UniProtKB/TrEMBL annotation:
Pfam families: ACPS. It comes from Streptomyces taklimakanensis. This is 4'-phosphopantetheinyl transferase superfamily protein. One of its GO terms (molecular function) is magnesium ion binding. It comes from the Bacteria. The keyword Transferase applies. GO terms for cellular component: cytosol. The keyword Transferase applies. Keywords: Transferase. Gene3D superfamilies: 4'-phosphopantetheinyl transferase domain. InterPro entries: 4-PPantetheinyl_Trfase_dom, 4-PPantetheinyl_Trfase_dom_sf, P-Pant_transferase_sf.
Length: 253
């Protein structure tokens, strides 16, 4: 499934020493790039507390408060991955990249020329970063085989139209449909800066490709400049992306 006319599938960057040429070329040519990796390959040396503190900056105390150790490791890996991605675009070292949070928790890159960035990571250790200089981007990643049908999730996050579509589907397709809708809604609400504060049953999607934003009754929503999509990641996960090209990038100042 494709995102739209200008967004390609996520590029894998296996570790800190891997090339970012494909990512930079995608960003230069299309204005947006998605990148994915595993936390294990990006975990910084936690014995180097001074270097780790420089990398994490204002998130150092948050890192120290996390438990168990695996959670701290994945948190540090996600920040190294995110800051390396921004640093490669901006031409600065990862520890020079400052990530601050807008109200609602949306990340903002300070002082890096209008780059907008979004991060998602989930067990077991999969990360996706979206980068754009062309507007706003939101991403989400989940296990593709996550068993969610029959858990009550659909009643919480689906529009009436989606519930009708779900009921008409074969049982063995419902998990995939719910995961698809979840990552799309998460990506969209992260892109608009509200995240889980925005009721998921107020925005909908169908099963077409590329996805389109729908009203709760299934009619097309007014969404000028928006592109949506779903991509497989690493053979085990699925990522949703939402890109709005109709607003100026707000990634840096």
């Amino acid at each position: 499934m494709t995102v739209g006319a200008g967004v390609g599938a996520p590029v894998r960057v296996g570790g800190p020493r891997d090339s970012w040429d494909a990512v930079l070329a995608r960003l230069a040519g299309e204005g947006v790039a998605l990148v994915h990796a595993r936390t294990g390959a990006w975990a910084p040396d936690e014995r180097d507390q001074r270097g780790l503190r420089r990398l994490l900056g204002g998130e150092w105390e948050r890192y120290r408060s996390l438990a168990p150790p695996m959670v701290r490791r994945d948190f540090a890996a996600s920040r190294l991955f995110l800051k390396t991605a921004v640093g490669r675009v901006a031409g600065v070292a990862p520890e020079r990249v400052e990530i601050v949070r807008r109200p609602g928790g949306r990340p903002r890159v300070r002082g890096c020329g209008g780059i907008d960035v979004n991060l998602s990571h989930t067990a077991p250790g999969v990360m996706v970063v979206g980068l754009t200089g062309a507007g706003r981007v939101g991403v989400d990643v989940e296990r593709a085989d996550r068993p969610v049908a029959g858990t009550g999730l659909a009643r919480e996050v689906c529009t009436p139209y989606e519930l009708d579509r779900l009921a008409a589907m074969p049982v063995d397709r419902r998990d995939a449909a719910l995961v698809r809708w979840w990552v799309l809604k998460e990506a969209y609400t992260k892109a608009i800066g509200l995240g889980l504060a925005f009721p998921f049953d107020r925005c909908g999607f169908g099963t077409d490709s590329p996805p389109r934003l729908l009203r709760p009754d299934g009619s097309p929503a007014a969404s000028p400049g928006w592109e949506f999509g779903v991509h497989p990641v690493g053979g085990t996960h699925v990522a949703g992306v939402a890109l709005c090209r109709s607003v100026p990038g707000r990634g840096g100042d």
